[in-house]
Amino acid sequence: MALRYVVTGSRGQLGRCLVRRLSAGEGGAELAAAFSHAELDISDEAAVASALAELPGGAPAVLVNAAAYNQVDACEGEGADDAVRINGEAPGGLARVCEAVGARLVHVSTDYVFPGDAREPIPEDAPPSPRTAYGRSKLLGEERVLASSERALVVRTSWVFGPGRNFVGAILRQARLRRTGELTGPLRVVDDQRGHPTYADDLAGGILALAGALEESGEAGGIFHLCNGPDEREPAPITWWDFARALLDLQGYPELQIDRISTAESGAAAPRPAYSVMGCERAAGLGVRLRSWRQALTAYLASPDLRVTLELQDPAALDAAPQASA
Ligand SMILES: NC(=O)c1ccc[n+]([C@@H]2O[C@H](COP(=O)([O-])OP(=O)(O)OC[C@H]3O[C@@H](n4cnc5c(N)ncnc54)[C@H](OP(=O)(O)O)[C@@H]3O)[C@@H](O)[C@H]2O)c1
């Protein structure tokens, strides 16, 4: 019988990719319902309970929570309360509702639960110690989920790009404005944080594979790390500068200069982890491995997901694109 899924936060980068894969019936799965922020606020536990109770066909087997408050710098100030409510407390409510109806919760978390001082890939059981309000709020969410249910999964990922606002959209806009002469001078990109960028669509596929494997075996959940892998040719972790360089080379801007700057020079309000590479051994043990970040980036740039990003971050890039002739 098909595993029935519910997705919350369905209009975010990960949410859209989950909905697309589930709507296509990937791995025999079925989309029972998808709720955007406007349709269901995950911090309203009573609303979550009635949404699941009212589902035609009964409770789902799995609920994937792709909703989050991701504005890292705002979490330090005006977004502090939202961060705790959405990232910290709401996942606990989702876990309680899922337990009550017998559904497995898959909750998504982040490398920001770690301090960023590791020197080799961080294993799933490494002690978290966040240095930002965002990281603390996400860790609270993890703790609430894991305390509520042995079946629940916490899937940590890093540096997500997909159909939505992201680093790729910001860099492509900067590049286009320089080509048109609206901006001058080199781009400036941080070169002292190391990590693995992760395509939301690959993450979605990995989450469905993990949840499917655990449902089939009846195993408990726990913490999993899931990120795109290293580049086959240059396996060292990359910086945001490396990622921007690869992106601009792939998109036809090889001549565009990018200056390397430090995190301190970037002026961000919240500190950033200097090292975010996570070891994904537990997922690999279940046969779930994501391809390299470079393969993933190449696929994203050729996919309709890039258009979604540009619509949000640089609509002028779409207006300038050649129209297909009838
Ligand atoms: N983006 C990254 O670089 C990154 C890195 C590591 C981990 N992660 C984690 O990966 C997961 C997916 O991230 P993403 O990049 O797909 O995020 P995203 O694109 O920002 O999407 C998050 C979605 O959650 C929705 N949302 C916010 N508050 C909500 C609420 N109270 N109830 C219901 N929905 C709500 C947002 O809707 P509105 O926009 O309408 O508010 C948005 O559609 C998150 O758990 C995130 O913490 C992300």
Structure overview:
This protein has 326 residues and is of the alpha/beta class. It has a single domain (4-234, 262-316), classed as 3-Layer(aba) Sandwich (Rossmann fold), CATH 3.40.50. Helix content is 41%, strand content 14%. The protein contains 12 helices and 12 strands. The chain has helices at 13-23, 45-53, 80-101, 133-148, 167-179, 200-217, 240-250, 263-266, 281-285, 293-301, 304-313, 315-320; strands spanning 4-8, 30-35, 62-65, 104-110, 153-157, 160-161, 187-190, 194-195, 198-199, 222-225, 238-239, 258-261. Strands 2-1-3-4-5-10 form a 6-stranded parallel beta sheet, with helices on both faces. It has a two-stranded parallel sheet with strand order 6-9. A two-stranded parallel sheet has the order 7-12. Strand 4, helix 4 and strand 5 (153-157) form a beta-alpha-beta unit. Helix 2 packs parallel to helix 3 (80-101). The protein is globular, with a radius of gyration of 20 Å. It starts with a strand and ends in a 6-residue tail after the last helix. The protein binds NADP nicotinamide-adenine-dinucleotide phosphate (NAP).
